Amino acid sequence: MKEKLVLVGNGMAGVRTIEEILDRDPDRYQITIIGEEQCPNYNRIMLSNVLQKKMTVSEIITNPLEWYEENQISLINHDPAVQMDTTNKTITTQSGKEISYDKCILATGSRAFILPVEGAQLPGVLGFRTIDDTENMLEASQKYQKAVVIGGGLLGLEAAKGLLDQGMDVTVVHLERWLMETQLDEKAGKMLQADLEKQGLKFLMEKATKKILGDTRVTGLAFSDGTTIETDIVVMSIGIRSETTLARTTTIEVNRGIVVDDFMKTNVPDVFAVGECAEHDGNVYGLVAPLFEQGKVLADVLTGKEAKAYQGSTTFTSLKVSGCDLYSAGNIRETEGVNSIEAFDGINYTYKKIFVRENQVVGVVLYGDTSEGNRYYNILKKNESIEEYTPVSLLHMVGEEASADVSEWPDDEVICGCNGIDKGTIMTAINEKELSSVADVTKHTKAGGSCGKCKAVIGDVLAYALGGEVVSAPTGICGCTDLTRDQIVTQIYAKKMTSSGEVYRELNFTNSEGCPKCRPAINFYLNVAWPKEHEDEKESRYVNERLYANIQNDGTFSVIPRMRGGKTNPQQLLLIAKVAEKYDVPMVKVTGSQRIGLYGVKKEDLPKIWEELDMKAAGAYAKAVRSVKTCVGANFCRFGTQDSMGLGIKLEQRYEFIDTPHKFKMGVSACPRSCVESGVKDFGIIGVENGFQIYVGGNGGTEVKEAVLLTTVETEQEVIDICGAMLQYYRETGIYAERTAPWIERLGFDNVKDVLLDPVKRQELLVTLDEAVTGRRGNPWDEVVEDNKTRQELYTVGRA
């Protein structure tokens, strides 16, 4: 008979311990897990992504129900343990189920702390700790306008940014002088506040909440200094408290948390504790790395392995708070005997501060540039003397200081601080499992799977282990991944990933939220791959595409209405003139694509101008099909051979608002004189006596590329079809932000020509294109004009 192991708590720390046990001895225990929440085990760290609608609940599930079944684990979900009998070794759940155990792990986690002030029980007062909390916040954001978040720690800032992204007016109330005071010093905390204020968050610092106002629900807050603030909801995020209710019904010793020894044992035989509910040597940890370290020790104990005593953890935080990079480790306060080395780069807005006691690093704070966090952490954790280090270096040449030779590092040198993976572990995995890439190392050891800052060092270790014979992998699309565009797109199809969150998770992106470079790219690839299944993630697009207008260097915008083929009429001209005069538009100009542009428009005026113009957007802001430039053609020009304006209008009508990897420009000239420079367009047409010459791959810009003659056709319909086929082929194979000239060079002109001139392939591409854009094409200006919520969210001053 297997021993019965019961885990109380279905969270990250407890389930990670079970995973470690299964890795060591999968057949040792009959395992039961008791969980309070309805969902199976999920990554609580990613709740902020759910709140910001970057991920769905299903995407943050770490261990789906199938995992429990595959490992023969009995899961009792949505039925918390309420009673524990340590004498008879039984656990009773809320529904009355009684489960016996031989050994029990308590991993009950923590609760959000709610301020014990008057009004704290009013409707509209929320916590931010669980999926239910997150869904309640999302529901509230759709009904109400103003939110106050009490607490300027990491979780509070994530909650505030999430509510801001949902269109709410958000104020963060914080008791201290600066944000994240336990992880950051004052300088870094103030830098973080300044960056978040630029994003639209408001702050009330050094404010103590005295009372929550309201009769039937929240209406505001009153502070101890006599001031007040109006609000519709209040989110409490001022810290967590270990959840020890179950343990307190027994003789288990409880202080701040459940007291454990160096092997995670409580004072009661066969009962253990890990995670945020456990107190070791007076410390309760709330970060992931210490909890995982505890889980490894306990897994050794429970599987009969020789366990190293848990000696506590040196905590560190490598985070991206709403797009702001920061890193913190160890003791970050200047106390007696602790001095610091500080460097602030005002040009690049980066800050570094190293705290030193007796020639040893005891703390680190980095803001803006966190690339050296892992190196400083190793120096700190190993108590290494810094006597021979240069404390400050300024204006060194790039690459002047060579990195240390990993071949000389000892096996216990920590490579991945997040997961506690050292060089020896990585070397063993490389040799035993014949690993040949950084991605393989991450998959098998978890090294590099969290913040990802250590991936370059993992690559060095890999090269060393394989004798320096590693073939350099292709450059990834951004710093979040080593994968190329083709590798990512292949996996999107193979695994049918339909959201960015899935891509980041399944393909082990170092940043679980992506970065400004990869977010729009992944969103585009998903739009092309799964046009019906994938919901366009507007928050991943660049600001121009989110606002449907080009932002100018002074923060104002341009309005360029569509005039198909460059053709207009007196009524449109009158409308443009009236709008320009009414809204005091500082400049009206004919653009390079023969359109009339209004420049210097205020953001809040955009929807009103669009409504009054009653014209379509020209798409001049987007990576998409742009306006078609034409000459007057055979109808008026004595040299013209074809109706260039008519064809240009047909091309715009057929393909407007279709997204492409980069802007896609077209020109139609009625004769070889090519007044519209068709020879430098992505798709250029020149009218000749017997039809139309088609040129492809021409690009203007800093590096002019001349288009190449693709073919000559007789009819306008052939031109339109070849254009559509090229658009879809470019969409399917182009790298995001790659113009058509390098695209054709990469694929090979002959290959592109063969595809576009093959009638069968051309028809297939046209059908795919039509299926992809059906139902998704429409004038975005109309959508904004008709949607008051969108107008408030995007076109109110201070929002973007």
In short:
With 800 residues, the protein is of the alpha/beta class. Helix content is 31%, strand content 21%.
Question: What would CATH call the homologous superfamily of the largest domain?
Answer: FAD/NAD(P)-binding domain
Coarse shape? globular
Tell me the count of domains: 6
Helix content: 25-40%
Spans of at least 5 consecutive residues whose pLDDT stays below 50 are: 395-404, 469-474
The CATH architecture of the largest domain can be given as 3-Layer(bba) Sandwich
Overall mean confidence score, pLDDT = 87
**Alpha plus pi helix count:** 25
Please list the strands of the largest sheet in the order they lie side by side: 3-2-1-7-19
Main sheet properties: 5 strands, parallel
What is the gyration radius calculated from CA atoms? 31 Å
Q: What's the number of extended β-strand segments?
A: 36
CATH T-level topology of the largest domain: FAD/NAD(P)-binding domain
**What is the end-to-end distance?**
62 Å
CATH class of the largest domain: Alpha Beta
What is the SS-derived class? alpha/beta
In terms of DSSP E residues, the strand content is: 15-25%
